[in-house]
Amino acid sequence: MTHTTIDSPIGELTLVARDGALSGVYMPEHRPAPDPAGFGDRDDAVFADAVRQLAEYWAGDREAFELPLDPAGSPFQLRVWDALREIPYGETRTYGWIAARIGQPTAVRAVGLANSRNPLSIVVPCHRVVGSTGALTGYAGGVERKRFLLDHERRARLDSVA
């Protein structure tokens, strides 16, 4: 395990990798809070691609990440996190949509719990999931960061067609 930290518009991000594959992207006040003791030594070089792609995302020039990922989770969580990556940039989907997408339409609450445990914030876009009414619901980095990320993507998408 290795880690680095980078500045971002939503505060300092901690990037964690296992054997060179990104396994975590954590924000300040991340809930549930990961244990920094498991982040390993600092090694900025391992994260060059992730840092570049995150900078492109913040600049509005990247809609999807192309990085080797290695999140730790149950088979159910991994299916949920894979479905999150199908949500188009600048759009939102509901927990019910995710549940149906993974073939378990009655598992909405379990999807919500798996979504809240996503260790790859931003890269695996759990911020694009909203409640059934379209309301912003909880987010590991706080609802204000979720709102910021959604607004950022909508603005970048509008700028790209203008």
From TrEMBL:
Entry keyword set: Cytoplasm, DNA damage, DNA repair, Methyltransferase, Transferase
Catalysis performed (reactions): a 4-O-methyl-thymidine in DNA + L-cysteinyl-[protein] = a thymidine in DNA + S-methyl-L-cysteinyl-[protein]; a 6-O-methyl-2'-deoxyguanosine in DNA + L-cysteinyl-[protein] = S-methyl-L-cysteinyl-[protein] + a 2'-deoxyguanosine in DNA
Enzyme class name: transferase
Subcellular location(s) of the protein: Cytoplasm
BP GO annotations: DNA alkylation repair; methylation
Gene Ontology MF terms: methylated-DNA-[protein]-cysteine S-methyltransferase activity
Methylated-DNA-[protein]-cysteine S-methyltransferase DNA binding domain location: 75-154
Protein EC: 2.1.1.63
Xref: PROSITE patterns: MGMT
Primary residence: cytoplasm
Additional facts recorded: This enzyme catalyzes only one turnover and therefore is not strictly catalytic. According to one definition, an enzyme is a biocatalyst that acts repeatedly and over many reaction cycles.
HAMAP family assigned: OGT (MF_00772)
General function of this protein: Involved in the cellular defense against the biological effects of O6-methylguanine (O6-MeG) and O4-methylthymine (O4-MeT) in DNA. Repairs the methylated nucleobase in DNA by stoichiometrically transferring the methyl group to a cysteine residue in the enzyme. This is a suicide reaction: the enzyme is irreversibly inactivated.
Protein name: Methylated-DNA--protein-cysteine methyltransferase
